[in-house]
From TrEMBL, chains A, B:
Binding site for Zn(2+): 65, 67, 213, 301
Enzyme type, top EC level: hydrolase
Pfam families for the chain: Amidohydro_1
Residues where substrate binds: 94, 146, 186, 216, 301
Protein name, UniProt field: 5-methylthioadenosine/S-adenosylhomocysteine deaminase
Enzyme Commission no: 3.5.4.28, 3.5.4.31
Domain Amidohydrolase-related: 57-403
One GO molecular-function entry: metal ion binding
Family statement drawn from the similarity comment of this UniProt entry: Belongs to the metallo-dependent hydrolases superfamily. MTA/SAH deaminase family.
Cofactor note: Binds 1 zinc ion per subunit.
Gene: mtaD
SUPFAM superfamilies, per the entry: Composite domain of metallo-dependent hydrolases, Metallo-dependent hydrolases
Record field: catalytic activity: S-methyl-5'-thioadenosine + H2O + H(+) = S-methyl-5'-thioinosine + NH4(+); S-adenosyl-L-homocysteine + H2O + H(+) = S-inosyl-L-homocysteine + NH4(+)
Keyword annotations of the record: Hydrolase, Metal-binding, Zinc
Length: 431, 431
């Protein structure tokens, strides 16, 4: 049992009741037990004392949509038309991905994520045992799911479904509870209706949530209407997907009625501003989703379409683009963007004790070095986090009270090995 | 006389004839004399040899619109309606700015800029002697101008004009040529026509270019039409402003005909995507400007409306938002965004020997540490610079062949003093 106390810290809690605390935070193993501007009295002894001078502490960031292994294709074939990029660069190389590729690509992404302050992420990919092992090793949290494309013969469909079920069973609740799982038909435009229904049934059987891509491009929405007579939201609702707790990624092209349907079914939306801009998919109606009461969080998508995994940038993009596009300087203020990147992300993947700093919450938190020009003057730290900070400002990262990054160095991962192997896998794939 | 050779470097030159060089770059005092994948022969002796392993070298970034002193108000009153922010937060505090405030605010910005790889910037503000002294001390380049608002009695107008003229005369070509000057009526909506004409006349007399804000908000464009019967471009053309070499900031709201007029007069446009988004001014027609052949560069605007001075972010925003808003994934590709932030910026402020790496060019260049997860795999360094890098990746900065940042540390400025004084000035201003 270890009780740790941080002194002289500045804590941006993302807790409306006490948004800014200057002073002390204590945690006992995985749980925050003290948070106050006053020093705790001696009746609560602490084993470890840390000095938080010049550090800003905040909840760890939650990335609610990623395909981590695709970092192996970062910068490979950028600035091509979408279909050329997908058909000539991404799909042929992804088809060649072995377990080894997924392992090193995922580790490269996890290395970048934890050093940049992301403590939890959603991953949807293939060879998921490799992903789960990487998450277990890293010390971060993962909400993981075998994403299945159903454009294949029935026996391959069945094999993918069984793989997804087996993975979900094997890993749900593992790594001291840091890993949870979901069921994921890849998207309405890549999965026949009956294939989606089988995933929904499996999610019922296993009592798991659903994750899928939805309404990322206008083209796919129009094709869905043409093929099924319904836009994607009604189509997925009809297939029963929203009868399970659900997280959908993108949701760029929505009507008012679709927004209302998402709210009625309490569907969570992962907004991916960087990826949506880079792939020219459009600008999601985030201010309208928030106004309707839909739970919105942030995802990077893969670093092949982003091209980094810096969640500070996603918060900043969310705070900037909706102002610029709507003409309303009050759209998605910094306080809201910070919630999208932290507590909303945690709620979106059903982590009730993650995403804010408060007594009783999990000790998932990060520290930023704020003794730098771009954090001055000391005017408004929420503004500074959202409008000025970057992943590179993160110095320390804790998950479940365990430190996994110290002074910018990953403690759980072999950085040199990961960088070497990732480069090697890229060369083997593309040469 | 010092001849320096960098070995084992990767050079992104922004020179179309040899965009990527892996090997050697030599410079003699302020000028690049060698750039090749082959080692120079012994007939050219070098006094200093530097190792460039794991470093990516590129031209220094050029920020073509800034009000550096306003960093003192970073994060002060964010997320308010534009008029409330201006009238209650910015203007009353700026009115209180003394020379001391401008000195420390400017130094705070210059510290952030040089550490982040910006080697040249445009500054438009008041107390410009302080700004020029800060630039001289820092070792960076500045294209500086006393911005004058003409909404004041004739004697105050005249005083501002004389101040602007005196400053321009005193500092043009100073600091070993690193400082140049311009004439700047603040904006059409803050300057009566005859006041603008006086600045144009002074620019003719002194043979200097012009800099002004133009068409930042739709509101100001409509007001200009109402007041003068002309949109801002025709209005400024009529007042003779474009008879001088001109750089205009923002240019968000333009008609096709205005774009054509800007091209005809060879007016340079400083695109400020971060500031335009944050202040909800809109999205400039950058793809159309580029297609028309207008010289477009990038500016941060002040860190009160950005909120940092990271030019990598401005390149990334320029590359992302125009794709997302236009629906064209080929809009402003990374190669173009990199030019906007480097060679176009240099040309925009009439620096012909800055902005690319090539023999005969000035040794204004920066190094990035690319031995990091977000720069892997080694697929496309232009993509990595634009879509993945940040100011915090910069390790070394050279201007005129003199090193001003080494291993992330500013060599010319007293960082601790600047941070202390900037915070103190903020507290004095706002308490």
């Amino acid at each position: 049992m270890t009780r740790t106390l941080i002194r002289n810290g500045t804590f941006v809690t993302v807790n409306d009741e006490a948004p800014l605390v200057r002073g002390f935070m204590g945690f006992d193993n995985d749980t925050i037990i003290y948070l106050s501007d006053k020093e705790p009295d001696a009746s609560v002894p602490f084993d470890v004392i840390m000095d938080g001078t010049n550090k800003l502490y905040m909840p760890g960031l939650v990335n609610t949509h990623c395909h981590a292994a695709m970092s192996l294709l970062r910068g490979y074939g950028d600035d091509l038309a979408l279909q050329v990029w997908l058909q000539e660069k991404m799909w042929p190389n992804e088809a060649k991905f072995t377990g080894e590729d997924v392992r090193w690509g995922t580790l490269l992404s996890i290395l970048e994520m934890i050093k940049g302050g992301t403590t939890s992420f959603v991953d949807m990919y293939d060879h998921m045992n490799e992903v789960a092992q990487a998450v277990e090793l890293s010390g971060m949290r993962g909400c993981l799911t075998r994403g299945a494309i159903g454009l294949c013969p029935p026996d391959v469909q069945e094999q993918k479904l069984q793989e997804a079920i087996q993975f979900a069973k094997d890993w749900h609740g593992k790594a001291d509870g840091r890993i949870t799982t979901m069921m994921s038909p890849h998207a309405p435009y890549t999965c026949p209706p009956d294939f989606i229904e089988k995933f929904v049934q499996a999610a019922h059987d296993l009592d798991l949530p659903m994750h899928t891509h939805m309404s990322e491009t206008l083209h796919e929405v129009l094709e869905n209407e043409k093929q099924y007579g319904l836009r994607p939201v009604d189509h997925l609702a009809k297939l029963g997907l929203f009868s399970r707790p659900s997280l959908v990624a993108h949701a760029v092209h929505l009507t008012d009625r679709e927004i209302e349907t998402l709210r009625e079914h309490n569907v969570h939306v992962s907004h991916n501003p960087g990826s949506n801009l880079k792939l020219a998919s459009g600008v999601a109606r985030v201010p309208d989703l928030l106004k309707a009461g839909v739970l919105v969080s942030l995802g990077t998508d893969s670093s092949a379409s982003n091209n980094n995994l810096d969640m500070f940038e996603e918060m900043r993009l969310a705070a900037l683009i909706h102002k610029g596009v709507s003409g309303d300087p009050l759209a998605v203020p910094a306080t809201e963007a910070l919630k999208l990147g932290t507590v909303n992300g945690a709620k979106s993947i059903w982590l009730d004790r993650v995403g804010t700093l408060a007594v009783g919450m999990k000790a998932d938190f990060i520290a930023l070095d704020v003794d730098q020009a771009h954090f001055l003057p000391k005017s408004d730290y929420v503004s500074h986090i959202v409008y000025s900070a970057s992943a590179k400002d993160v110095t320390d990262v804790f998950v479940d009270g365990k430190q996994i990054v110290r002074g910018g160095e990953a403690l759980t991962l072999d950085e040199e090995r990961i960088k070497y192997e990732a480069q090697r896998r890229f060369e083997l794939l593309t040469n």
